[in-house]
Amino acid sequence: MSFKQFLAYSASAGSGKTFALSVRYISLLFMGESPGSILAATFTNKAAAEMQQRVVDSLRHLGENEAFLDAIVAETGMSREVLFQKQPEVLKRFLSSTAYIVTLDSFFSMILRSASLELGLEPDFVTKEQPEETLEKHFLDEVDAHGLIPSLVKLAMDIEDKRFRKIFELMQHFYKVDPLLPEQSEVTLSVNKEEEACEILRLEMLKVLQNTDAPDRCLKQFDTKSTKELFGKKLFEKETLGEHSWYKKVANTEIEAVYAALKQRLALWAKAREMIVLHHIFKIYDYYRNAIITNAIHSGVLTFDDLTYFTYRLLKEIPSREFLYFKIDAKFKHILLDEFQDTSTLQYKLLEPLIEEIFAGQGQSDFKSFFYVGDTKQSLYRFRGGVEELFEWVAQTHGIEVEQMDTNYRSSRHVVEQVNLWFEGKMEGYVAQKSKVDAHEGYVEVFDSEEVIEDAVAQAQRLLDLGVNVDDIAFLVSTNKDGQTLQEACAKAGIATLLKTSSSLKNVPKVAALVSMVSYLFSGEKIDAEAMLQNVGKTFAEIDLSWFSVFMSPLQVVDRLIREFGYFDNDRNLLKLLEFASGFSDMPTFLEEFGTSSISVAAHSIHGARIMTIHGSKGLEFEYVILLDKLTRPNSDKAPLIFHYNDELVIDQILYRTQNREHFDENYARIMEERKASALKDRKNVLYVALTRAVEGLIVIKKPEASIFDEIGMVPMSIGRLRQAQPMTSGSVPEPVEGIDSSITISDYGTQEITEHENDEEKDLAAILFGTALHYTLEIMGSFDEKSLQNAMVSVRNRYGQLVGKVGLQEIEKRVRELIEDERFQKLLKNAQIMKEQSLSFEGELKQIDLLLAYEDHMLVIDYKSSKKYFLKHQAQVHHYQKAIESITEKPTEGMLVYLLEQGIETVNLN
Ligand SMILES: Nc1ncnc2c1ncn2[C@@H]1O[C@H](COP(=O)(O)OP(=O)(O)OP(=O)(O)O)[C@@H](O)[C@H]1O
């Protein structure tokens, strides 16, 4: 058994850190630990959902992923046989208990909810970002109520950037790190006094210079109107005045003494300004914090910063850890943390009591563990308080072994080698990665381009022409705005794309139109009905909405609209909407929550090349990456305050940025240098993340000048070959099947009570659900045998049981069993390479083939159907698939429709 109780992996991109985390999680389950005792925290909701899914999938299909199984064998020291034996029980235990696979934010929100009343906060708060205007207004009202607007204006003058926005940003930053802020120090210097002292020394300097007959230009340097102007003089960058060429001849001990005294005084003047500015900021900040907290408590809406702030206070004020555990009804014995390099100090401080608890038990018989993984080369969130130094600090504090991993399991050989070439020697501590043994050759190309967008689109087109599935392409950009520009260009070129926002249900036009119609019914604003009417090609005069009553539940209304307008059309996103609606009992809450929701669209229900910011792509991987240079110039660092963290990782100094201050103040100069170095490191980290996302191919579109890639000396190059793509298995689109006779209804959503209005559309909906579930069963079966069917039925029951009901499930099982027992079907499988749910792009369209059988000399495309109602349509569809496969594989391709009907299996050859 290789399980190490206390361990950290500090390893490069693609080396399997997240993989190791999942392995460890499952290993703990096999070792008998209960899911409720393991806290696994990831960085994004998406990562948490994926990990949860991965745990379930891996437990269900334990034998299918050799690498995973081997890793669990090594970790637990159990044989494969023992693991298989334990599998059903472990899966059952996992499915029947609460698992804490969460983001840190959602975990904190859970803690806070459990005891928020201690802070006067109702536990039903919601967490979402607030519009800045709302926060600004609360802040200004509070400042105004205390008659402090003049102080605010004064502060704006002091920080030299006179916009209110800047102050607001400062306040936000203070709040973000509130618990880490140092005590406000006393104002011990006076700006006026320092100015007077500087003035005396300046005049003295003029006098001593005149005494030595210094030339006019030397005197002129000290002929200034204000201390600020004098402070800005470049000549102060020298240690002594004599080092400056103009003064070489005139400098003497007297002059140097005045020069040194003046420099010292100017440093004090800057310090005095810093003190006074900080004093004002802290004063105003008290009101800001007050306004924000009061607003959060009253509205019950918490931003993520509020969440951290309140949780911190809670943990400070809560009587004991035992009390906390009692409140959340869990006691964690094992903690696993992903992407640790981006954990902020504050987040760590919130977790610290739980981690300490684990170490406190060390040496006792209790089995406890702590594991974290990260890569400081991928640290991107310094601006949000992410402190990469935390990685080492935690290891040292607790004596945790830090292990390296040097094999890249993600990328093709050329991608790995090229990344090594780009970063070796240019990134501190970079250790070249090895390729995995069976790595593809892959492809990397860097273009110089004046037309970044146009060339990126052209490269995507090139990939598509080679048969690459559009879903396997990702464009990585620097900003959201670059992403939007690119999306418009892709749309013009006819390339489907998905921006992050398009993966949110509320942005799916069809869903948005439907919800808008609900809004019309509720509020009577005619404009809200327009989108849906347009979608269904009707006018107000042609529709009957008399059935509507304000007493109907949101679910009933959405469901009725779908039926009334024949709107379903195989759309699984509408199922998601129904599911969401079932959680609300009143219309206003439903409408409001939908408006701010971020429900992800049904998997694979939308297709296109992803467009993502580099930040958003962290932790993800894509077959082909097209990476674009930044379209606009990088912003220069202008933050008025600089926060310095000490070795204990709390803020020990806040510096007020003043131009040229580095010439007067060594401490300031050092911190600014550190900051510059960190900024450079951050920029390289961003490049590193971007260049390590590709699995097979990487194309970089680089500007010939002022490129973000200049930092690593990137030049145009090309290595490897782009091949004609084989059909990829990039997930699945179980195609809903139309029309079967069945008594199944969709009456099982939450609180729905509308079973009695059965009509044709309802039957269609039921049939679609049935078809979807049937396809899903066939898709997830490891092979076509009884054992795989039994395994598959467990997931089908979990996923579709509620929707298709018991009878539906039995019918699915019966029909699939008939298929696997069908001799004709089994004969087809013999000597064939079996590929399920093949996605491919052909003639600009996406295809999803249920089953593709590859024989030595020909191919066979099989499409499953659960009803013969649309035979001609089915036939045309399969013909189309045949054509696509034939053109890609250049092999004769046959087609077959396999009907899984109530009365038995029927097949139709299409040649
Ligand atoms: N030991 C392994 N054997 C086979 N495949 C692996 C192994 N470890 C990881 N992989 C696969 O390699 C890919 C990259 O792994 P993973 O995402 O865990 O890397 P990572 O270190 O977390 O990357 P990043 O730092 O970019 O987030 C995934 O597709 C994963 O399934």
From TrEMBL:
One GO cellular component, as annotated: cytosol
Keyword Iron: no
Broadest EC class assigned to this enzyme: isomerase
GO molecular function, one term: exonuclease activity
Gene3D superfamilies, alphabetized: 3.90.320.10, P-loop containing nucleotide triphosphate hydrolases
UvrD-like helicase ATP-binding domain sequence ranges: 1-412
Record carries keyword Ribonucleoprotein: no
Protein residues bound to ATP: A11, S12, A13, G14, S15, G16, K17, T18
EC number: 5.6.2.4
Catalytic activity from the UniProt record: ATP + H2O = ADP + phosphate + H(+); Couples ATP hydrolysis with the unwinding of duplex DNA by translocating in the 3'-5' direction
Protein name as annotated: DNA 3'-5' helicase
